[in-house]
Write a structure and sequence with these properties.
Shape: globular
Order of helices and strands: EEEEHHH
Radius of gyration: 13 Å
Number of domains: 1
Number of strands: 4
Largest sheet: 4 strands, mixed
Length: 90
């Protein structure tokens, strides 16, 4: 996977890091230096983390991404994309 340092989303330019945590995304009203972190995983969980956090960076509110049923919409979309053949490239 190509390492990137920053990426511009709707809410601003984010510093990107890939780590072993599930992921997080800063909001512009909380921080000046915006950070987005995604899960370091080659499977669909890593894809789901990237989708989920990037949707936050695009300004999608928590109420649409964090539902109480225990299943994330982004996990279902990631699984669909995974089944279509989307993979990380080395």
């Amino acid at each position: 996977m190509k390492k990137i340092k920053t990426h511009s989303f709707r809410l601003g330019t984010y510093h990107v890091s890939i780590d072993n945590c599930e992921g997080f995304c800063d909001t512009p009203d909380q921080y000046y230096n915006l950070r987005i972190q995604i899960l370091d995983d080659d499977g669909y969980k890593g894809l789901s983390s990237a989708l989920h956090e990037s949707l936050h960076a695009e300004g999608i509110p928590d109420k649409y991404l964090h539902k109480g049923d225990g299943h994330s919409d982004t996990e279902r979309i990631a699984k669909f994309l995974w089944r279509l053949g989307y993979r990380k490239t080395k």
